[in-house]
Structure formats: structure tokens, C-alpha cells
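Hi Prof. W.,

I finally got the TRAP-type uncharacterized transport system prediction working! I wasn't sure whether to trim anything, so I left the full sequence exactly as given:
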Amino acid sequence: MSKKEEISYQADPEVEKKVNELAGSDRVLRGWMALLILVIAIAMSLYHLYTAGFGLMPGVGTRTHMIIHLTFGLALVFLIFPIKRGLGQTKIVWYDFLIALLAIFVGYYLYANQTSTSILTGRMSTMDLIMGITLLALVLESTRRVVGKPLVIIASIFIAYFFLGHYLNPPFRHTRANFENFIYEMTYTTSGIFSTPLSVSAVYVFIFILFGAILEATGAGKMFIDLALRAFGKYKGGPAKAAVVSSGMLGSISGSSVANAVTTGTFTIPLMKKVGFKPQVAGGIEVASSSSGQLLPPIMGAAAFLMIEYTPYTYAEIIRSAAIPAILSYIAILFMVHIEASKHNISGLPKEMLVSARKTLIQHGYLILPVIILVYFLVRGNTVPNAAFFAIVILLTLAVFTHRMREKMGVGLLIAAIVGGFAYAMHFVLDWRIEIAVMVAIGIFVALFVILLQKQFKIDAAPVRFGMRELFAGFEMAARNSLTVVVACATAGILIGVINLTGLSAKLPIIIVNFAGDNLYLALAFTLIACLILGLGLPTTATYVILAAMVAPALVQMGVPIMAAHLFVLYYGILADDTPPINLPAYAVSGIANSEPISTGIQGFKFDSGALLLPFVFATNTVILLLPENAGLYTWPVIAQNIFTALLGIVAFVVFIQNFFLVKLRFYERLLA
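And this is what came out:
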């Protein structure tokens, strides 16, 4: 087979630019300004990499860690994101420089004064008050620039409720409005901005965004897409099925539906159109599969780390419970795609146009190892940041030495020996964990094995080169990709603070339960609607935080197990990402598909709705969640029976939505489905 006949993923140089534009930044920088952002982004990534592997630096507590994390994020936001889109800026304007410097100064002030008497006693000085107000304004403005107006509007409503709540009637009435107390609680305690969401962003989320960015820089995206195409490409609607599988795998790691949709959609959407899918349908399939990846273990975007803080479960227990519903939801998307292809008689790609699976695995297969290492350390009981750190260590070792030793075996082996010896020596000199040296050693041996395998089968090395340029690009992309999460979590902290300070956290479950009249199905239906409305235009992390605080406790109060309640709101929070009219992934891919954004969003919602009722299943019958508290309660035949009946329901619902099964359905057949 000639190389010209093979279809293989090629990275689009415009992808990063497109992602930034869709996130609200069309500021294209060159020269020293681009270098400045690169340096700050690398510093941010290296700081989080260090803390994940070695813990917090001496004198740095959890709150200080959050301050550093937020300060990095705010500074980068004002340097990267213009005050509004469409300005076509090619440099950082003077006022954004000043705002970025102000953000750094505020961060330093918070760090330097967090143990001052005025802060510890709650009696703020005038300067404390000014800095608190400034921080609040910076967080809201950065959120507007990066996430958009919806989250800022919601935050403004909550702030207004704090100050005007005494004008309302019970049960929403409260009498706790006080300006100074509000600023103090929001900015100087762990009740507001520096609460659980930002802590999760700083401790858990960033390191996984970094892992995903480096993995993408090594060519993992190419591997996932090539393997998915090889597995599904020749079948009916093959490119669409390949898009579902590859986008799901990447979506679990990236945690950003927009970035994932653009990265994989750049390649998969033209292929889907080529075999006969309509532009808006091709875009919708990419939207659905990219968004739903955030439900897929082992990484689940950022949601699993948030759930650790909001539920009593461990990471391993969360991903085990999420596994079956996630797989069922992707089977629903695949079946929806299959029916769509059958309706319009869309075939797959010729087998000779697909890349050899053996070639792909020999070229890139080693990139699966870091994911396996990650899961191993998580199951073994290591902390989540530690597991991600070890996975990054072996990933970097593999990426660097598979290229270096292929180009110059002798020099590569010498450098490998030096690096391996250094890592082992540091275990004794600086008490580095022995796992670091082990990961480096395994990475070197696997890299050598891959090179010998490539030579044995006369297969060229992977075309994606990995050197310092790619490493720095991965660090920068990680920092850029994290900004949405950083500012969304900071603003979500304001919402959580208002809910707790006003006593709304205790009242909301009672209000919802009373409104539903103790009818669980009615409460679940109200929750579904609330998830879709609150999640419009918001990143999944912010949506989940709001719903976990406001709605999940009501479901728990009505007898839904904690895990089921939180997975319920997470599932529909992710679905909200696909819901028109504010559907960011649809706007992202519509430019690639040359389709209308709203119609693309409608198609995305359609393809994601095959498992629309699945959360109702596991909320009322938790067998398929494999809950720890149910261990030993159900036999595997019972679990298999529940999975089968859930799958049967999904198939019937997909048939109903598509109005097609082998042939177009009659009216009564559709109703029966």
C-alpha cells in the first residue's frame, strides 16, 4: 500500500488558533509578547508538575497553593484574552498589561497578608477591603472573557440575592446581608473563591490537563484516530463511528469538549462528509462524542476529581461506578450513528485507504503505557496528583527517547544512562521517590524495544517528533487549556459561598422535595430541566459544582444514593454542553463542517440523546453503578440482566428518535419503540 493511499491524521496548525478564538481569544501575538506568555505558561505548568510529584513547597499551604494557582491563571487570562472578540489584536494592549500586573499584585498581597491580624480576626483594614473587592472584580471579568456572560450573569444573580434576600418572602428570605462580611468571606476565607472548586482545580485538574496536553503533543491523537478508523472505518458509516470512539478516548483525557471537538473534528468531519453525512450531521456527531467523553473513565475530564470532594467515595470507586453508564452512553451514540448511516445508505471507507493497525501500534502503541501506569497507581492507592505525575514522567521518557535513540542510538543510550542514573541517585541524595527512577527506567527500556521492533518490521518511526519545542508547546497548551477551569471554579466558589452564607444550602433540598411532592420521578425530571438550563454555555466543571451544591442534596434526601445523585447531575450537566442555543462545541465544529451552528447543535443533542433516560435508570435502580455499599449484594447474572435491559431500552429509544429500524417505521411502530 502506498503512503498516498493511506488515511492518517495530520495535525492542523490552525487548531490551536481556532480553539483560542472559540474560547473568546482572537489575539494573535508574536515576538517578545508571545515569549512572555510562553514563559508564564511554562512556569505555571512546571509549578504544578513539581507539586504533584513532590508536594507543596516549604512554607506553602493549601490556601497559598490556591492563591498561586489563581494568580497564574488571572495573569494569563488578561494577557491572552482581549476585552472582546473581533478586535483583531496582534499585541497586548496597555490596559491589559496593567490589569495583569494588578492581578499579580493582588495575588502577592493575599499571599503576604493571609496571616495578618486583620485577616485572622475578620476585621479587615481599608486596604484589605480594597484588595478583596479588586480580586472579586478580576475573577468576574476574567470569567466573562474566557467562559462568557452566562456564568457571570448567574454569579451576579447570586450576589444580588445575598444583598437583597431580606426583601424576599420565606423560604428564600434571609437577613445576613453585610457588605464587608461578604467581601471577607468571598476573598479571605475558604467559603468563597478559595473553596472546594478552586482547590480541586489547583490540586487535581491542572495536572491532568498537563498530562493530556503532553500526550496530545506526542501524537496520541493520531494513534487514537488511526486505530478507530482501522477498527470501524470500513463498516457502514465508518468514519462517524471512528469519530465517536476516538473523540471519546481523547475527551476523557482533555476534559474540554470544545478543544476535543476541534482537535479531532478537523480530521473526522471532512471524512464523514466525504462518505455522505450532511455537514450539520457530521458536526453534530463530533459534538456529541467529544462532550460525552467527560463521562468516560479513567480520567472523566475534571468531574471525577470534583466528585472526590463532594462525595465520600475514592477515585477508584467513582470511575468504577461511572464505567457501565459511560459505555452504555457511547453504545447509544454508536447505534444512533449506525441507524443514521442505514437511513441514508452511507457506506464506509475502502479498506486499502486505512492505516495498518500493526503499523499504528508499532509506531505509537507505546503511548498507551502512560495511561496504564496512571490507572495502576490510582488503583494501588496513590494520590491522584502522584499518579498523574508518574504517568507524565514515563510519558516524557518514552516521547523523548523513542526519537533520540532512533536518530542516534549511541548518543541516545548514553543520555538515557545519564538520565536514569541521575533519577536513581536523586532517590538517595534528595529523597526522591523510587517510583520516579523506576518510571524512567521502564520508559527507556520500552523506548529501546519500540525502536528495535520498528527496525525488525521495517516500519518508519512515528512522524510526530518530540523535542524541547514540543515539550514547551505542551506546557503552554496545558496552561491555556486550564484557564477555563481556573476562572470557572473561582466563580463557582462565589456561588457556593452565597448558598452557604445565606442558608440556602439547607433550604434548597426542602424546597425541591416539597415542590416535587415526594415524587422521585418528578424530582428527577425537575433536576433534568435545571441541569439543562443551568448548564447552558457553562463548562462542565462549573455546571457540576453548582448542581452538586444546589440539586444533588435534594435527590439524596429523597432516597437516591449519593453516587447516583452526583452522577445524575454530572450526566445532564455534560448533556447541557450539547444543548442549543448556547452550544459552544457546535459553534466550534460548524466552521469545520461549513454548517449552521444552531442546526449543528440540534444534531449534537440528537446524537447524545440515545441514552437520555439512562440516568433515570441508575438513579432508581443502582445495580449497574456497582456501588461499594452494594458489594456482594448482587450476583453477576443480576448485574448482566440489568445491563441488558438498560441496553434494550437505549436501542428502543434510539429507534424512536431516528424513526427507523431496517426500514422507516410506521406510526404505531414508533410509538411501540
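The chain has 31 helices and two strands. Does that look reasonable to you?

Thanks,
D.
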